[in-house]
Amino acid sequence: MTLLTDAKIITTGNSSKAGTLYSIVPDSGLADLDITRATTATRIDSAGLIESVAINEPQLDYSLESCPSLLIEPERTNLYIYSNDYTTNQTGTNVVVTANAATSPDGTANATKFEVSSGGYRLTWGTFFSVSSANNGFYTCSFYAKNINATEMKVGIFDGSTFANIVTPFSYISQVNTSTWTRVSFAFQVASGTTLVGVEVVGTGSLGDFLLFGHQIEAGEWPQETSYIPTTSGSVTRNKTYFSKTGISSLTNNAEGVLYLEFAFLNVINGDQQIMSIGENSGASVNIGRWGNGYLGTATMGSTNLTFQLNFLAPIPDLLFHKQAIKYKSGDTAIWWGGVEYVTSTTTATPANPLDKISSTYNGLTNFWGFEGRIKSIVYYDTILTDAQLLALTT
Amino acid sequence: MLALKLGISLNNIKAGGGGGGDPVGTIITDFTNRVSTDGGTTEGEACLTTILTDLNDLS
Asked: What is the pLDDT of residues A64-96, one digit of tens each?
């Protein structure tokens, strides 16, 4: 027997249709995940291009690696209207703007060329973008850029009411090149009372020819761009993605087992709890994910936490893929991460209810503390593994 | 005991170990057929092969 043949559930980010992420094990389809997201979204496909995905369709994303992973993002709104139309809602001087001048990151000829001469600039004009100081006033501006022959490329943010700089145009030319598209991203913070902002897409001081595509401004509890959300005349919201599947108790064991996850965080900022689980809020669940600024693993049996130390702040979170497993059994529970056993517990408890649900939420609750990140694989075993197996599995 | 006499560890029987061939490949073929029949699509098969092979190599 191997950890392949022993697994009761194996789910990876490889096979999907709208509403479903298929599980390799079991082959009956009993653990195929139901995907919920009431809006369309985009992903980076295997060719490295931005591609739209349908409502409820999983975002199988290649942003980090050449292998796909299930991307689960928070809800975000692109406040930047006409996100890829640089001839509407803009003004400027000494800049020649040519729409549809080159192939863009979505693979079509809809990138815009800017030819900037001395003193040139181009910025939002007409309808500015509504902001507030909620969530500490954090926003992220992002866009794709590719140089042609420019000697300087700058971008800035200004107050849409007072026209004072919020982010003085700064140079990003060192981040981009002439052969590939680069997504440029920067965070900014608006002060209390600021209600409108605009973007100086060609910042004063820019000089030469370059291409731009797909501007985005999004608010969030943490400053970092999420997948591109195209807009036209109004802002557009991409809902948060959830997965779940009930009726899996025949695959699980509430007395002992192992839940394994290979995943990556979306950011390194201290944030909300973001957790996936097997089980329900009925006295039996196993959870893996994020707690504030650390990793989390819990097993709850018979209303007793078998692992009392809910979160462990070391290792320090990053954006890379890591492997984590939680072994649970009365008197023998442990959390493994990256080949290291970080937490153990000898707490005993009598299992209460079956583990009947797998979901991207804490304790199987509906849309509660939903997981956010990239999942490469989920594997579940209905018996505990040896330390040697857990070491190998998580290394 | 017979297994031990034959030098076979029951813990080392891998997927498809008794039948030869490519066990991971068989699993993937069956899986992708199920997905396709259901109207879904599969991508990154080489990556999937790596994940399943790594699991199959652990006993």
From this structure: 999 999 999 999 999 999 999 999 999 999 999
Helix, strand or coil, per DSSP, at residue A391: helix
Task: State the distance between the two ends of chain A, measured CA to CA, in whole angstroms.
Answer: 20
- Side chain identity, residue A208: G
| Contacts by A168-174, CB closer than 8 A, 24 or more apart | A169/A200, A169/A203, A169/A204, A169/A205, A169/A206, A170/A203, A171/A205, A172/A145, A173/A147
Interface list for chain A against chain B, based on CB atoms closer than 8 Å: 1-5, 7, 10, 12-17, 20, 22, 24, 27, 29, 46, 60, 66-68, 376-377, 379, 389, 392-393
Place of tokens 């002439």: A178
**Which pTM value belongs to this model?**
0.93
| Long-range Cβ contacts of A36-39 (<8 Å, 24+ apart) | A36/A241, A36/A242, A36/A243, A36/A244, A37/A238, A37/A239, A37/A240, A37/A241, A37/A242, A38/A239, A39/A237, A39/A238, A39/A239
Dist. CA A60–CA A21, nearest whole Å:
9
Backbone torsions φ then ψ of A315, nearest 5 degrees: -75, 160
Pairing of strands A59-61, A357-359: unpaired
Q: Which residues pair with A212 in a beta bridge?
A: A112, A145
Nearest to A146 by CA among A184, A117, A97: A184
Q: Residue A209 has which token pair?
A: 């020819």
CB pair distance less than 8 Å for B41 and A20? no
> Counting every residue, how long is chain B?
59
The alpha-carbon gap from B47 to the nearest alpha carbon of chain A, in Å, equals: 6
Q: In 3D, which of A322, A346, A323 has the Cα closest to residue A334?
A: A346
Segment A147-198, tens digit of pLDDT = 999 999 999 999 999 999 999 999 999 999 999 999 999 999 999 999 999 9
Return the exposure string of A268-291: e unless at least 16 CB atoms fall within 10 Å of the residue's CB, then b: eeebebbbbbbbbbbbbbbbbbbb
Q: What is the DSSP letter of B45?
A: H
- Which position has the token pair 């910025």? A123
ipTM, 2 dp: 0.93
